[in-house]
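Shipment paperwork, digital attachment
Item: protein structure file
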Amino acid sequence: MEAVINNTKLIRRVNIFALLILAVCVCAVAFLCKNMWLHIACTAALFLVMTIFGYWGKGLKFLVAFLISYGWLTFNVRHGINIPSPMLFTFLIELIPVFMAVYLVSQAPSGKLTAALRQLPLPSSVRLTVIVILRFVPTVASEFSDVLDAMKTRGLLLSPLQVVLHPLNTFEYVVVPMVFRSLKIADELAASSVVRGIESPYKKEGYYLNKMAVSDGVMIALFISTAAMCILV
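Attachment content:
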């Protein structure tokens, strides 16, 4: 247990720009790489990166979803099956690695992300938009999981068949609570930003420092070289 906790703290010591460059490289490989085996190898390597940072559970789910999508797409193309649409699995194959990289970026402390974005020549509105998106999505996903657990405890949404047979109940018991929870989260986020002086015109200082270490430079060089090799080969 202590090893997992220590691993998850690694992402707090990584330069945010290294994670952002990782996300850009993954997007480039996902949409520009023509060799499927290299695409699979990069996804497996991304799973290894998530494991090093202590998120092997989430990474394994992403990897399994990727392999299932690739296997089903191959089966569909080989046997001429069009249901579900092969285009759906093609999108999943391209987007799952991107989700993995974005998940890593979202796990970085928001204060460190803010410090990194302040180092870039970006308008404050753009910085705030990026920060809110990266922090709001994981929070909503966590709230959605809590809502599902609460519904299952009450004997609802126990199986996908029940969801299909009772769509109105699904809407009432899941979507409606999520809408109100999202509104509450948005209000709390806005109040927290105001309390922390987001409206102040003066230069702001953060708790986190986003310094570049030798290990960060090595990771950036490795990410860029790997992406370039996958795209050019």
